[in-house]
Structures are given as C-alpha cells and as structure tokens.
Write a structure and sequence with these properties.
The chain has 434 residues and is mainly beta. Helix content is 5%, strand content 29%. The chain has helices at 18-21, 37-43, 139-142, 167-172, and strands at 50-55, 59-64, 87-92, 110-114, 119-121, 124-128, 136-138, 152-154, 160-162, 183-187, 192-194, 197-199, 208-210, 215-217, 254-256, 268-271, 280-284, 326-327, 332-336, 343-349, 356-362, 369-371, 374-376, 383-389, 396-401, 410-418, 423-425, 429-432.
Length: 434
Amino acid sequence: MLTTLILPLLCPPFFQDPAITQWRRNLDGTTGTSSSATVNQVVGSIEADVTGEFYGNRYVFVDAAGVPSHEVGPWNPNPNMIAGQNWTWRIPLNPTAASVSQRTWTPMGQIAVASNGVPFYNAKDGFSYLNRGVWFQNANVFESVSFDVGIGHPQRQGVYHYHQAPRLLLNQRGNNAQYHSLIMGYAFDGYPIYGPYGFANTDGTGGIHRMESGYQMRNITTRRTLPDGTSLSPYYWGPDISINYPLGCYLEDYEFVAASGDLDECNGRFAVTPEYPQGTYTYFLTQNSNGDAVYPYVIGPQYYGVVDTANLGPNGGHSNIPSGATEYSGFAIYANDVVAGGTAQISLAGAYPGAKIYLGYSAFGPGPSSTPWGDIALDAQHSALGPFHADAQGKLTIQAAIPGSISGTTLYSQAIAFSAIGVQISEPGRVTVE
C-alpha cells in the first residue's frame, strides 16, 4: 500500500479544473487500431486520442486527430473510411447559461467532443421522410447497421463520430453503476457531459442513480401531428407506425414530458458531481436499464448554455491556439489494452525527471483513503506496483498482466512520485477490464 512509503516532502496540489484534466491525453504515442486489416492500415499510423492541450483564462484548446485508441471499424455497409482531422477544439472554461428563448439548436455535424477528442453528432442522419423536412430520421436507427464495436462510424469526409454513448470509451473511462460516471466529454457551450450514472439527488446525496431522460415515445399509431400538437396537412404526414417504420425511428416520435425523468429538455440538470463539488449544469449520456442508448442520447435538441460557435459547421473545430496559452502537462495515467488475460500498457507522464514512482491500484473503489501526503482516490484496500523510475522527460511505461478472471471489473489507479524536488500525486485513473 502507498501508505507504507515514507518521505518527508509534500507535493503541491495538481491542477484541479476538470475542463483541463478530464481528457484522455495520449502519453506514449499510441495509434489507432482495428481488427480490419484495411482500416488498421489507415488508423495504425495516426496518433490516437488527445495529443495536446493548451489553456488560457477563457478557453482550453484540445488537439486531436479524431481517432480513438479503442478499436474502430469495419463499418459495412458504410463505404466511408476514417481519416485524421487535425482538430483543435475550443472549450469555454467559464460557461454561461442561455435564456430559454435564446438557446441554440444543435446543428448537423459536430455538437460536442468526447474526452478522447472524437466528436459527438446529434441524433439526425440528415434525411427526412420523402425529403419534406418534417419527419427527421433517427441516425441511431437508420445508421446503426454501420456502427462499429465502439458505436461510432465515419461520414463522407472521414470524420469518425458518435451519435450516442460510446461503449468502448465508457469502458476506458471505467463506467460503473456503483459510482458516479466520469466526464465523457464537453459540449460546445462549455458544460460537461457525464456517463449515465450520477447522484440520485442534485445536492450529491441519495446514492448512485442511472439518469433517466425526460423524453418519452409518443402514444401514436399515425404520424400526422408534431410533438407540440401541430396538425399537419396530408403532404407532410409521415408513414404510419409499422414494422418498417417503428415508433422511435423519427425524432418527432418523441416528446418531452416534464418530471417524467431526471433531466430537462436539454438532457441535463444542475447538480453536484465529484469533479464539481459546488455544482454545475451537466449533460448525461442516457441509457435504459439494459445499457441501450435512449433519446436524446447526448444533448437534447437545444444547448443549455451560450455556444462557442468556433467548433460548429464544416470549418469548425480548427481554432488557432493563442501565443499566450499555457501547455498542460499534469502528472497523469494513460492505460490501453486492458483486456482480461492480456497485457495492458500503462503510461505515465508529467513526473519529475528520474522520480521514483509507485502505481497504486484497487478493484474496491475510488476511495478516498489517506496517506502521509494527502488523500488519494483509491479505496483503503489498494495495492501498489513499483518502484519504477521516470525517464529524463518524466515519463514511464509499464506492461502489466491482466488476470483472465477479472473481465468486467473496474480498476482504479493513481500514481505517486518521489524526487528531491517533492512528492507528486497523479490525476486518478479508472478503467473497466474488457
């Protein structure tokens, strides 16, 4: 256990702003991967996840090629091929709520960015019934056949994206029904997007609860009215409910029913979270009790906050990093290939050069527990690997065997580094074993 180590030096606290610390920073040059040889030939040469971060007083800038470190492809019958995108996302650090009348509708294309730098799209697939602009097709129905194992796919320009909660990224972020979900990304209004689990009560009490959408399928057999009650002329009618056009395959099959779920029309609420103990507005990735994604999936039809338009549209997501921005290089953990019976690669960066490092881990939860150097985000029943030594750049990569018996287990980790300069405690890590 880390508490058995003795060193008199104390570490300064690591950077606490979640909008800066909660990204999957690539610390070891990991590239994309695919079981498809054709796809792997493309993504195997592209650096995965977030490749750089810079911040100032107003924004954090997140660099990424848009290729995740989890497996991607194939996308049959989708003929498109993933391509690196050179994203630089600009996320507001001080988000502001918009008045209800001034809220922005989520557009086609990117509406938010996941913690691995991959964009989220909304639920539209770009088509409507008979192209009449009324009954809009649900991408999670009409395009789901082309979703890969990570629940993503590329569009014509090669932009890989998600329309709903990405299963493999949830695993990489240690999604677990026993504990509050981690931040899975940020919307372009600057508010966080959490996984499906939060505190039952908005004040942080009541245990852990799966957040339920306030949207419900309408009780209709024909598509002749809109959710707001508007009656349509026959020209704008949609197809009757049938096996070929089941309820839910069009976005207008849903209506918001106040107080029917935990979340508002934007698919979020103001609440205390582990990363925001004073409370924040936050969106949630919505799922049902079987783990299937449910409407509106990520963000509702409108954003809650004032949107930074630098990320929107065909040319959005390519901001210039201002010359005065600070590069973020906090002490962090980056784990990949955490598969039962396999060998995981665990990399650390941001330690003092040559520091002695111990990697603490636990299958019993995120703690906290106390050490002589402060609380750590591990249960008291944690163990430790090491000591290891950081290189001259403050980096370290460990190969760790994963027992075949722990598939589905969520592992919690945190590192502590000792040097003549001081003691550092890393940002915590969390992953669910595949």
